Amino acid sequence: MNKVTRYLLWIFFLSPFILLFILVQLTATGFFGELPTLDQLENPKNNLATEIISEDGKVLGKYFFENRTRVKYKQLPQNLINALIATEDIRFYHHSGVDWKAFLRALLGNIMGDKSSGGASTITQQLAKMLFTEKPSIGIERVMQKLKEWVIAVQLEKRYSKEEIIMMYLNRFDWVNNAVGINSAAQIYFNKTPIDLNTEESAMLVGMLKNPSLYNPNRRLKITEERRNIVFLQMNRYGFISDSLFQKLKQTPILLDFKKPNHNEGLAPYLREYLREELKKWANKTTKIDGSKYNIYTDGLKIYTTINSRLQNFAEEAMKTHVASLQKDFYKHWQGYPNAPYPEDFTDSLINVIMEQAMRRSERYRKLKKSGFKEEKIKEIFNIKVPMNLFSWDGEIDTVLSPLDSIRYNKFFIHSGMMSMNPKTGHVKAYVGGINHTYFKYDHVKIGKRQVGSTFKPFLYALAIQEGYSPCYKVPNIPVVFDKKIWGLENDWIPKNSGDEFANKSLTLKFGLANSINTVTAFIMKQLGPHAVVDLAKKIGIKSKILPVPSLCLGTFDLSVYEMVGAYSTFVNKGIWTEPIFITRIEDKNGVLLEKFIPKTQEAMSEKTADIMVRMLQGVVDGVYSPAAQKKMGTGVRLRHKYGFDNEIGGKTGTTQNQSDGYFMGVTPDLVTGVWSGCEDRSAHFRTIQLGQGANMALPVFAEYMKRIYADTLNTDYFTDKFDIPKDIDQLFNCVSVFEENENNEFE
User: Fold this and answer.
1) Cα(67)–Cα(72) distance, rounded to whole angstroms?
2) pLDDT score at 614
3) Phi then psi dihedrals of residue 270, to 5 deg
4) Alpha-carbon distance 359 to 70, whole Å?
């Protein structure tokens, strides 16, 4: 072989490598297209989910386009890292982004037709592809993309440690089923945090890296298991697991605990949905350093809430327990009535009007209207039977029904809303906006407003106490007339009691509140006037419009559970109204504090007045003695008699006209809790006061909630405390019998 031939052979042999070198250099200069800037390399863009976190560190839910939450390297188990290295890049710690040895092996393997030679793409290259390469192309364009990945991989290796690259890679990968990133994947497939993954679980997730759609355990469990066993083989081959452990592991079946994210499931869905809109407003007015606005779906914010996950769970369980039982009573109560759950005097045409109004409020109607359908066509569609799922307390019902009939079916349900907060801090500990967020989106805590009935009476009593009236002050239980000429009414108004057991007797204020005597409350209203009540309402955080009319004394106006709980906090918090809040702070993805939230406060009444009112509210639960009945009487005494509570509790029941709404407001030294129960339509209700009163509709939800709290050994703070009330306040309640004077007197 002559010298020229040898030169030609060397040129032939080296030319591909020379060409490759030239192409790489050209790629590095940007000849074949833009490369990431230095800033982009050091701050790669990730769509990170915003997390809603409870005060005790539980993730209540997320807002996301991609369900991705970053974890740190120290939060990754070693078995996961071992499986990754063994399967994807055994020389990971020995190359600088591109493994040329593996590249040559793969190249020669392809030339020789050896498919077992393996791939050449390093973990770093795969990361570069995920971060900066567009959707893979074919042919020569894919070659150019590959060259870019090499260059980017080398740049990544210069700027990040090996541990950081592994962390970024696992945080970036999409394991399908909304499992973006290792944190989501561990939670969705195994209901675990990454650090708790065992070897079998880690191997399955690593096996999915090759093709997550193909190796999806929810769809192809068998081949996913086969792929996982290949990961075990690689771990054994490179000494990460022993021969005996390998033989054992490959016989182990895949055990999933699959929990796909669902915004309707999990704790506090109604609160999470409310916060979604509030956080959007916050993000729109909050600017980053670069001048852009925050995005709750992509910026990985940490929203730290006031919610206690245990109390939230107790609240949801309590509502489910009682309202499910109450619903059975409601069905039984209306059985055999053709117009149920509407009164007998409701005509078919009136019920049709109600159904049509509900149809127009539905999401289905809005979509059809937006699509251009005429009214008659929409009505026709609403009468066509279609497959659908319906809610029931015994489980989801899969049936065929017309949308209009489904509306009528849903009208039969009793709904409820509940909120519980610390009266001193304003921190809301539990928030249950409805009975089931999947089927009933409407929030009955913050958004919904209903008549509060007698639960508003304590504020009139507070005004009376503030003006010098004593809990022992006696009021004649006779009709109170509000003259139409004096009070600007269309007709004279004479509030009536629900019964005449104490007619024409003299009743103390404390007895009047404990037993919700309307005439006593009306007496106070007549003495003080409605304008004083409206002024107090503003001081205790009532934002809803309240007209200064005499009927205020019976709570004939609409308020939210949120407003009522905040208002009642004033009594427990020594006369200081504290604004209920849901969020304590917001941090960015790096833990930098963006905003801290402190509740507003304002003085609404004197400390002495507040202390007296707490004792008056306790009288509702403890009862106030009646010589006539020879027992203590109060609308909330079933908390003692039925539920057996012996700690300090106060409260107030509320029942509106026709039993349309049942309310209970409960106070303890550390919690103020409000519960409303009723049907969607005010015209649908129990026909009797026994079943429809607040003591039966709402109080048991509070009782079930507190029962669970007191049984929880981890929440002892809520059980042993007593109201901090001076002894001189208690002396004000040592009055003579409510009937001792004028016991048999009648008033004209």
Assistant:
1) 17
2) 97
3) -65, -40
4) 44
Using DSSP bridges, classify how beta strands 662-667 and 650-655 pair: parallel, antiparallel or unpaired.
Answer: antiparallel
Q: What is the longest distance spanned by two Cα atoms in the chain?
A: 138
Q: How buried is residue 351: exposed, middle or buried, by Cβ count under 10 Å (0-12/13-18/19+)?
A: middle
For residues 583 and 55, give the distance between their C-alpha atoms in angstroms, rounded to a whole number: 9
Q: Which single residue is written with the structure tokens 């077992």?
A: 116
329 token code pair: 């009573």
The structure tokens listed for 728 are 């001189």
Q: Which residue has the tokens 């068998």?
A: 222
Superfamily of domain 77-260, CATH level 4: Biosynthetic peptidoglycan transglycosylase-like (1.10.3810.10)
Residue 180 DSSP class: B
pLDDT of residue 737: 43
H or E segment to which residue 508 belongs? strand 506-508
Q: Which residues pair with 673 in a beta bridge?
A: 420, 666
Residues of the chain with pLDDT under 50: 19-21, 23-24, 26-28, 31-32, 107, 109, 111, 114-118, 139, 737-748
DSSP states of 645-695:
--S--EEEEEE-GGG--EEEEEE-SS-EEEEEEEESSTT---SSHHHHSHH
Q: Is 126:134 a contact under the CB 8 Å cutoff?
A: no
pLDDT value for 305: 98
For residue 594, report the phi and psi dihedrals to the nearest 5 degrees.
-100, -40
Q: Where are the domains of the chain?
A: 77-260, 415-731
Hey, which bits of 288-346 come out as E strands? 302-305
Which tokens hold the place of 204? 């399955």
CA distance 727 to 743: 29
pTM score, whole prediction: 0.84
C-alpha 79/C-alpha 327 separation (Å) is: 51
Return d(Cα 695, Cα 690) in angstroms, integer: 9
Q: Can you say whether the dihedral through the CA atoms of 454, 458, 460, 465 is positive or negative?
A: positive
Contact 717, 335 (CB under 8 A): no
CA separation for the pair 186, 201 (Å, rounded): 8
CA-wise closest residue to 77 among 192, 168, 198? 198
Which secondary structure element, helix H or strand E, spans residue 633, and what is its range? strand 631-633
CATH number of 415-731: 3.40.710.10
Q: What does 583-597 look like in DSSP terms, one character per residue?
A: EEEEE-TT--EEEE-
Complete DSSP assignment for 599-627 = --EEE-S-HHHHHHHHHHHHHHHH-EEET
CB-CB neighbours of 5 under 10 Å: 9
Instruction: Please tell me the number of Cα atoms within 13 Å of 501 on its side-chain side.
Output: 13
Residue 212 CA to residue 135 CA, distance in Å, equals 16
C-alpha gyration radius of the chain:
34
Residue 439 one-letter amino acid: Y
CB neighbours of 327 closer than 8 A, spacing ≥ 6?
A: 393, 413, 414
Whether 541 and 566 have beta carbons less than 8 Å apart is answered as yes
Element (H, E) at 60: strand 59-63
